[in-house]
Amino acid sequence: VHIAGDGSFRMNCNELATISYYNIPVIIVIMNNSVLGMVRQWQTAFYEGRYSQTTLDRGPDFVLLAKAYGIEGYTAHTQEEFKEAFKEALANRKPAVINCFIEKDEKVLPMVAPGAAINDLIFCLLYTSDAADDLLCVDLGGRRITKKKTIRHIN
Length: 155
Description:
Order of helices and strands: EHHEHHEHEEEEE
Strand order of the largest sheet: 1-2-4-3
């Protein structure tokens, strides 16, 4: 099982040709929020919500793309639809793509802050007020890191 965001999948969807040709039973689960999710998350948390070049609102239809390679494609808008698609894909034991639609601002954690070392992971983003004067982050060691002047509140 390979799990990827829609932005990541767009950068590597040429691999559908390989898994189709060799009939490799990979199930690709696309977490589709129609944005470059990690970049947008950085822009929200560290750059005061200044969004730039993160919207992916123009095609392709990933199910049709999979079918173009002879691979079964599924669409899931709910957890129940995902469970059914995943169960069927597992039973088929063939390549499959499951396009899962999620909220645009669904969080992806852990993450690394801009300029931080790869082992300085942030495991949660907690906004301390609706005014969002402070962003509380918790790193791998459980240390609390407060970033001042982060202005966006994320539910």
